[in-house]
Amino acid sequence: MQPPSAVRWTGPGEPCRVGDRVLPGGMLYVGTGLTAASGQGVEPALIDPRLPVEWGSPDWTGRDLGYWPSYAEISPRARAAYLRWLAAGRRHRDVAVGYAFLFLYGLERRVLVDLQRDDGARAAELPLIRAEVERLLGLFGSDGSFRSYATEFCALLEASSAADADVWAGPPPEVDRASPSPRLRIGLGEFARAGRPIPVEWALSWVLSHPGYSPRTAAKRCPEEFAALFALRHEDRHLGGLHLRPTGPQLTFSYRPASGGFRGVAEVAVPGVPDVFDQALPLRRLASLADECAEGLDAFSRLMGRDPQQRGSLAAAALLPEELVDLGAGDVGAFVEWARSRLGGFAMSAVPSADLLAWTGAEQPGKKDVVALARILGRAGIGVEPDPRFDGPVPKGGPVVFFHIEDVSEAAPSRTYRAATLLLHLGAAVSLADGVVAVEEKQLLLGHLEKALDLTSDERVRLRAHLRWLLSTEVKLTGLSRRIEDVDRSQREQLAGFLSAVAAADGHVNPAEVRTLHRIAKLLGLAPETVDSGLRAATETAEPASAPVVVRPGRPEPGHALPPPPEAPAPAVKLDAALLAARIAEAAEVSALLGSVFGDEPPAAPPPPPPDVPPVAGLDGPHSRLIRALPDQPLMERAAWEDLAAAHRVMPDGAIDRLNEAAYEATGEPVIEGDDPLEINRDALEAML
């Protein structure tokens, strides 16, 4: 037992004796005559062995403790409970929290008073004191007051420990926006003082911990992907590292002690370390980068919100930014390797669509499933036709065509390319009408489209693949009326003339081709005679004949009537190269025609509701107006949906994701399902509205 006149701090792990009780663990002030840190009264944590203790009737409930207990002022019964709790190793939680506070008072005094004058003891004891406070938090953390004071004290201990260490030697502290780690502040200041660039992990921890920045949903829902993308893009933008200016006031930390032995706020300074935590310019740069990364993960994040089990799937990989996709690993690697093996060393290769669709894992693959596969293949330098991203249909059988591409970007199809596919569609219908595709017909189609239209090299390659797919499948003329309804008569006649040249390119005009041309003429709103005159022009020889040319020698067949030839013998039918060149030279006019067909203006659609529509389920203005405009029907054609989305100036597929994400959060169900037609979940819609 200590002499009555002495005051001693028993260090961590050092036992002491009070009366006939041994108090293990140390970290106590025992003795007499120790003044409080404020200079007034006795130190509340001081255990004075002279004071009476009623060992037989301890006050475990702490009824006699008061709000700011002091060992000198609590009752003998309370002293008995406190000392017995200490003697048991401070392990029991079924005592009044005031006894844990009384012990904490002594730790506060040790750190804020004694250790400020003893560097050696500070380095040795701070980690042990912090460990003990964290242990007590595990016992008494359910009490809000104790949790608040003990947590703040731990932060102070962390700051004091960090000031004595090389903080950059380890990883940054965990993100905590409510109470940013002192070690983070000290570390940033140390990097600035030393002129060292901030490691990307510290930069990310800084921006996410700063109260002035609000992380987006994707950053919180997908922290691993977000951190990886942030690191990659940070490295690209700050090749030499991000440096902070070593300016600003000296870094200090404020702490309001729980002990009544202090008055006011205690401050702990970190000598020589500037406070750079709020430097505006680097924070703005990091916040901008963080927002950009979160935006890049939006689609992936929405999928994870709907179906977290999709993580690691091909569908999920297709939604990740390109930097995060490893084309040589996992399911993605297996899929890419399979596609490359099917393409082999050829420029393009036909593959059964069923083999491709099997990779979706869906019983009835839709547009989204095929787009996901096409996106992954595109990143590997492989194109696929038909591609829904380029206005192609979802394969329902037959082959698809793989081909090599150079441009792996995911830019939308150009207006010119979309125009070319329409003309190719019509031309393929003519070429396939007789069941045989002549080389001359194919060459005329591609020659015109590649030379006459301003296509990129990748678009030319894609167009060849598109033609190969068209010629290997059943080409239908349905669904084209909307695409040409605004074309004037003269432009339609030009288009009919070109298609007539395609039919005659091989020197023979089959009745089936003529019937197809007549169908196209009907689609174009032209009389069949327009096609017949186009056929005559296409089959003229280089030297103008003195009389009409026989389109096809032999007996006339039903369904095909041309003016009868004169009695003079007719020349053999052949296609003049100069005439074909003249057809190709009409590119500007045909391009203008196709531009009319494929104008950028969307088809007429109902005007959007007024802009003051109240928000629906947290959606922004355009999407709130869109969901209110959904028809009062269970089904909606895909084309009608795309028109409605265009009228509200949102992307069709992205809008479905946005509406469904809001629906999941509001009702637990999607509001739109299916591909074509779309299925409207009326129950979810009504609940949202």
TrEMBL record:
<dbReference type="InterPro" id="IPR029024">
    <property type="entry name" value="TerB-like"/>
</dbReference>
<feature type="domain" description="Co-chaperone DjlA N-terminal">
    <location>
        <begin position="424"/>
        <end position="531"/>
    </location>
</feature>
<dbReference type="Pfam" id="PF13208">
    <property type="entry name" value="TerB_N"/>
</dbReference>
<dbReference type="Pfam" id="PF05099">
    <property type="entry name" value="TerB"/>
</dbReference>
<protein>
    <recommendedName>
        <fullName>Tellurite resistance protein TerB</fullName>
    </recommendedName>
</protein>
<dbReference type="InterPro" id="IPR007791">
    <property type="entry name" value="DjlA_N"/>
</dbReference>
<feature type="compositionally biased region" description="Low complexity">
    <location>
        <begin position="540"/>
        <end position="553"/>
    </location>
</feature>
<feature type="domain" description="TerB-C">
    <location>
        <begin position="567"/>
        <end position="687"/>
    </location>
</feature>
<feature type="region of interest" description="Disordered">
    <location>
        <begin position="540"/>
        <end position="569"/>
    </location>
</feature>
<feature type="domain" description="TerB N-terminal">
    <location>
        <begin position="12"/>
        <end position="219"/>
    </location>
</feature>
<dbReference type="InterPro" id="IPR025266">
    <property type="entry name" value="TerB_N"/>
</dbReference>
<dbReference type="Pfam" id="PF15615">
    <property type="entry name" value="TerB_C"/>
</dbReference>
<dbReference type="InterPro" id="IPR028932">
    <property type="entry name" value="TerB-C"/>
</dbReference>
